[in-house]
Amino acid sequence: MKVEDLQIQRNVHLSGPGRIAPAKISNLPESAAGDTAKQIGNFADILAHKIDENGGVKFSAHALQRISEREINLSVSDLDRIEQGLKNVEEKGARSSLLLLDDTAYIVSVNNRTVITAMSKEQTIGNVFTNIDSVAIV
Questions:
Q1: Which residues of 33-77 form beta strands (DSSP E)?
Q2: What is the pLDDT of residues 75-105, one digit of tens each?
Q3: Could you tell me the residue range of the domain that residue 66 belongs to?
Q4: Phi, psi (5° rounding) for residue 21?
Q5: pTM over 0.70
């Protein structure tokens, strides 16, 4: 599953670098959709709060671009494994880590709980990874 599919599944879309906004509520009349948005508040704020509350992983704009360009498919299970790997390296005191998930490598900022970039197996061959302090196989 591609990032775009996950965004559709979760009813969000990218509205700018690293920012997400709610998808338009199409099955409600325009006035009802506006009223609903006012009742629940700013979607981006609510999502950011939920991510912080749950300790979820975020994707930088760069990572989203690389995932799309390199046609890396992510499933909900993959996201759960990335989150678990992030928790594991965080417990060990890591700050920047390389997470290896099947045939994909992710560079993550542990402090920000953010995926910085993603590479398929083909892109990792011959590369040297610098400025990381840990590697986790998840």
A1: 58-59
A2: 889 999 999 999 999 999 999 999 999 999 9
A3: 3-137
A4: -135, 160
A5: no
